[in-house]
Design brief:
The structure is a single chain. The protein is of the alpha+beta class and 99 residues long. The protein has one domain (9-82). Helix content is 22%, strand content 36%. It has two helices and four strands; from the N terminus they run H-E-E-E-E-H. The protein has helices at residues 9-16, 70-83, and strands at residues 21-28, 31-38, 43-52, 57-66. A hairpin with a 4-residue loop joins strand 3 (43-52) and strand 4. The longest helix is centred in the C-terminal third of the chain and has 14 residues, at 70-83.
């Protein structure tokens, strides 16, 4: 999914999904964990983004908990972001994304 690995992913998510918080952390050199939490909707999505040497691309493993639909909203938001030219919103305050 384009955009999830962008350094401003938290700001991109906040711009289109203001109730959703994004956090990112590196678990190993080639594995990042992304957490998307929407406490208002009582929903969460956990993504493990793993670099695949054989395929030369990132593979994502997705798990969704709580009310269904958050993953779909995230995918739609990033697709619209991609189609609109990948604009990076201004960063306001400290980033919620952790590396």
């Amino acid at each position: 999914m384009p955009g999830i690995e962008h350094q401003a992913a938290a700001a991109i998510v906040r711009a289109g999904l203001p109730t959703v918080e994004h956090r990112r952390r590196t678990l190993q050199p080639r594995i990042d964990e992304h957490l998307f939490l929407d406490t208002d909707a009582q929903a969460g999505v956990r993504i493990l983004a793993c670099w695949d040497d054989r395929a030369h691309r990132v593979r994502m493993h997705v798990a969704e908990v709580g009310e269904p639909g958050l993953w779909h909203r995230i995918v739609v938001h990033f697709a619209q972001w991609e189609m609109s030219g990948r604009p990076v919103p201004p960063m306001v305050g400290p980033s919620r994304s952790a590396s």
